[in-house]
User: What shape does this take?
Amino acid sequence: MTNDAISTTVTLLHGAEMPRIGAGTWPLKDDEAERVVADALTAGYRLIDTAQAYGNERGVGRGLRAAGVDRGDIFVTSKFNKEWHGRDLVAEAAKNSLDTLGLEYLDLLLIHWPNPGHDRYAEAWEGLVQLLESGLVRAIGTSNFKPAHLERIIAATGVAPDVNQIQLSPASTRAEARAFHAGHGIVTQSWSPIGGQGVRVLDLPAVGDIARETGRTPAQVVLRWHLQTGLTAVPKSADPQRLRQNLDVYDFALTDAQMATLNNLDQGESAVVDSDVAGH
Assistant: This one.
């Protein structure tokens, strides 16, 4: 990707328009989630990311309403756990999230983890494909799926996810996964994009050097790297000022040399959670 102006949204496989940068909400509890979501929407965010496992969907819903932004202008993502991995269970999972959030539809619903030991993620994907046709969700996807997991669900249904949300930062650039996504029209979305879990990316000297060179915060540098790499991201911050800063990354560009420096921070798959083992 060049340093030309980067669109603030991306068109997903099934037609939905998704903001490139959203506000994450883990591990916020309901009360704090309500405040942070309202602050994020006031700051200009239009993508809000939550999950059943976060235990904050009720607070997120309150924040959505408190901000006073039209529902049609907000892109809301949630995710469900392995107890809902089944063709006929996914609709119930979606209804639970909608009831808790106080919404009539979700913009994106994800399988939170593949949980291959449970071995029901293919059936969960079949349920999501059926749910897409109902109108209760505008887009469907996966989280923490490896290429092998994605190959299996695509083979089972002929339908690729709109989004695969994976742990990704300059400390683990996930080249193999990104290449698979690109080959199948799947949008890559980064969780822990500024290294809040695992490697403390913002503390790396190379990131600090580029922040000083550009007159930006380390987080802005890393989020700009995500954009120029062709990614979408859902950073989390509970601080109103940092929320605004994290969205203010469209009016500058990193040089090829700066991008190369950040790419060279890659530590491979050892820097991320193994989704063949972890999950819920």
About this structure: The chain has ten helices and ten strands. The first helix runs from residue 30 to 43.
